[in-house]
Amino acid sequence: MLYIIGLGLSTIEDITISGLNTIQECDYVFVDAYTSILSHGIERISAFCGKDVKRADREFTEQDSLIISLARSENVAFLVVGDPLCATTHTDLIIRAIKERIPYKVIHNSSIMTSVACCGLQLYRMGETVSIPLWTDCGCPDSFYPKIVSNFFRGLHTLCLLDIKIREKSLDNLLYDRDIYEPPRFMLCSEAAYQILEAGRRIHQRFVDASADPGVEMPCEPEPECYLHPDCLAVCLARVGSPTQAMLVTTIGILAASLSAGDSNNLSNVLGGPLHSMIIPGKLHPMEIEFLCARLLIGDGKEDLGTASNGTSLPVLLPPAMAGCGFRERVKSMFDRHQELLPTKF
Amino acid sequence: MLYIIGLGLSTIEDITISGLNTIQECDYVFVDAYTSILSHGIERISAFCGKDVKRADREFTEQDSLIISLARSENVAFLVVGDPLCATTHTDLIIRAIKERIPYKVIHNSSIMTSVACCGLQLYRMGETVSIPLWTDCGCPDSFYPKIVSNFFRGLHTLCLLDIKIREKSLDNLLYDRDIYEPPRFMLCSEAAYQILEAGRRIHQRFVDASADPGVEMPCEPEPECYLHPDCLAVCLARVGSPTQAMLVTTIGILAASLSAGDSNNLSNVLGGPLHSMIIPGKLHPMEIEFLCARLLIGDGKEDLGTASNGTSLPVLLPPAMAGCGFRERVKSMFDRHQELLPTKF
């Protein structure tokens, strides 16, 4: 029997009772160590479960058939950070089990795809989710861009899942089949915002180039409103579900600019390190705005501090600078500007 | 301090270790008994947690301020089936806590919004989620319909959350302020399918009526392809995450027809009672089709049985009847027909 067990978002204590009970009955326990990470290492998982938990990297899970062959006669647990079915990665493992007539059971848990609602944006208003890949020398794929734009211009929010690279090999090491791995890399919100604006510029440039070449038959250039403006809001989330969870409401432009400003800026102090996710909101309901601006409800003049006076981590607001304007006025103007950018039918 | 704790989908064993630990530290424990239900009663939650868990109905949570006033000085847990933030219902409670400067913490858990991936459809391909309300004498709202159509014609899947009514009062009892509640009602997939097709007919009829009235200025009638065809696929899910989880892949037309056929039909035997959810798929990736048809992978001639020979509950396939055609041929034809109904650009 194969058990595919969600671990939730932050620490091993986020596992469910039924998940933990199931592990106790298993002969072998593997943990997916390549699609995401908990805030601590595999040793703590082993100690907590009282089992010798083995690391399963991508090659082991996807190419080696040990997990499947063990599950023919033994109880095997495969642990996955978040909910096991939110990424498509593990579908393949389940289909292999089915083909071998090995019974399987999924034990669900919380996922970043729903926990992002902690910022107050409603999941009902989410359009298609996108993954933003880290751009490298090998390529700068921008297929996420039209999806964000399509959601935005239908008034829907877009959850952007940001790339992580764990135990990846460099091109050189791949070619020479050397088992040397790059240091882990985790995309931050500022990088994602830069890539979003840059993707828009590149797509626009491709149309300009094609229109200058009479030999090329091209589609019409998209309308100007088919590009995201730097004044669009971006809701940044860091380490959702963990004790150090942080949230920031600002604009795509401010985020992207912070990337060139380096690490010393205010913004990276607010969000801190990985894991980051980002939401590009569409049309905002008044209650969503109230929640995003929850810090203003407390009204103690400490709206720009990282932690509210009551100890709860509310979203930090970082509106664009406006000469002679107070903090609340700048926040209001940031939200008004976002709503202006949406099509008038909303 | 106010703790808002997700219970997961099925039984109290689906709570997380961190959720259970938090309850132990609380002076008061309430459970939301109006937005969803576990597969067992509140007594089992109390016994499992070793606490006197109190039922919180809608009036108590939304109008009575006892939860908030207790949380000023005590540790209060508010338990919610699924993930606490997936419905918008509990946002109001959090905003009230923030306004009163009461610190709060959310402990996430699995939600129907992600667990539906158990059928093999990818969450990345989901468009906007819709809620389908039970139609009553008081009204037949159909605003869910254009959202499903909009997703479908963009090639995206639509998760349809089906209405449940727990502890609702009849209009009479509301008017006379009598504390008499109607029996609980849970929408089934067959009812949802009927309402989807009927909503399409009603919206069409409104256009026809308006065009016959020269005094009315009306928008153009939507194109024929703006209506969902009864041959569209519907993926039905029952009691997701529970030991009796069941799945069915068929068409909207077959589902709707089963409603008039009464309870004795094959279909309600397959799915069983509440809670039901439904997905109207958009464009299907080959791996999604492989997963939906997992029963065919086993290929032991038992493809039409409720439980596969390996004990795992795989989706049951119920294709339309076709004279002289074998089961596999009918399934293939059902999927081909669905893809045909999508715009040609896919």
Description:
The structure is a homodimer. Mean pLDDT of chain A is about 90; it is low at about 305-310. The radius of gyration of chain A is 22 Å and the shape is globular. Chain A starts with a strand and ends in a 5-residue tail after the last helix. Chain A has two domains: about 1-110, Tetrapyrrole methylase, N-terminal domain (Cobalt-precorrin-4 Transmethylase, domain 1, 3-Layer(aba) Sandwich); about 115-340, Tetrapyrrole methylase, C-terminal domain (Methyltransferase, Cobalt-precorrin-4 Transmethylase, Domain 2), CATH 3.30.950.10. In chain A, the strands form three sheets. In chain A, strands 6-7-12-10-11-13 form a six-stranded mixed β-sheet. In chain A, a hairpin with a 7-residue loop joins β10 (about 235-240) and β11. Chain A contains 14 helices and 13 strands. Chain A is of the alpha/beta class and about 350 residues long. In chain A, α9 packs across α10 (about 250-260). Chains A and B meet through α1, α5, β5, α6 and α12 of A and α1, α5, β5, α6 and α12 of B. Chains A, B: This is diphthine methyl ester synthase. Chains A, B: Keywords: Methyltransferase, S-adenosyl-L-methionine, Transferase. Chains A, B: It holds the Pfam family TP_methylase. Chains A, B: One of its GO terms (biological process) is methylation. Chains A, B: It comes from Taenia asiatica.
